[in-house]
Amino acid sequence: MDGDPAVESQLDGFSLILPLPYRVAFILVLGVWAWGVNLHYLHLLKIDVASLIKYPSRSSSSSLPHHQRTYALATTITIPFVISVLFFWTLTRGQPSAVLAWDFIPQSYLFLLFLLFLIPYKRLSPNGRFRFLTTLKRISIGGIAEAQDGKFGDILLADVLTSYAKVLGDLFVSLCMFLSSGKSSTDKPDRGCGGQYIVPIIISIPSMMRLRQCLIEYLRVRHNPTQHSGWGGQHLANALKYSSAFPVVILSALQRGYDPNKIGLSETGIFQLWLFFVFLNSFYSFYWDVAKDWDLTLFSSTLSSTFPSVFPSSVATTTFHSNQVPPNQAHPWGLRPHTHFHTPQIYYTAIVLDLLLRCTWSLKLSPHLDHWNDLEGTVFLLEMAEVVRRWVWIFFRVETEWVRVKSGAAAVDEMLLMPMGR
Question: What is the average pLDDT across 224-244?
């Protein structure tokens, strides 16, 4: 903040235009717009998201649809964001010393964004914001509601937070630098602010939340088994998936602050371990996205042939779109009998996109891209890519839940993991 050239030179061109607090704010605001698009398109497909997450129905037919209320909230938080950015650009004009000195402007917007979610203003979807905050409070300690009280909504939000893990880490870094003497939150991010392991712990919290939710669901099955619940193997397998993220986070932290005097492994050894666990986490998660979250039969010929028998006979009376086939007939390869999106190509595209965005870590394997991996613009794009992947994932995860509920199969999702349950 004192204009020291040695400090100013650390700021790249991207950080001069969009410093860390604004990057965090941009992704948070984008998330609200993305949720509105999720609600809007699923509404057009006649999928009632509100009923799935046990959100109160509209009080009257004249009430705005949920997606329009979400768009209104997104617009409300976008306008001050744009004003703040333009004001910041006017004051700083790309000068490093000014960017460092005026860090309280982007930080003020983050504070305003926090207030906008708390102020009980009727035009800002108060019910939706209250539901979001109460759900966030419950899942923040790994809690999960019963099915009739909105369990699916708890799972959706907790899964979204896992995709925002690095954004939450950057939010902490921004606040830590802002409150630290002699530092500026618009300077080059110090991701060791507060200690070497504080940020990795924050990044791990969303996975810890989902891990505890999976264990709670497992215990519920064990204590209150039903005809179709099995022994809870699916929940343990899901818990293992979230557990696989912890070695990746820990090893990444060790690589960033490598000290041969404290670590009994070489840098090459740590990198090889990281590579093994990131590969395991990425492809296990991809498999789970496709086979379990979306109920697609891409990885199981057995499931593809037995899928119709999983659903009760009442499915036969379900109304299907013209592009769908009854459950007792063949369906497009790798998919499932009952689909809501208009063509199989949409599903195949989503599968490929999910795989590619699950494997963005592979950029680190190319020596030609090594320089780009350390740039803040690259970090921002990778965080954006994960948010986009989760946005696409939500469409298919909600559609899958709708298929289960409308077919009366929500209670038999454990059977989809039958080979593991034996």
Answer: 85
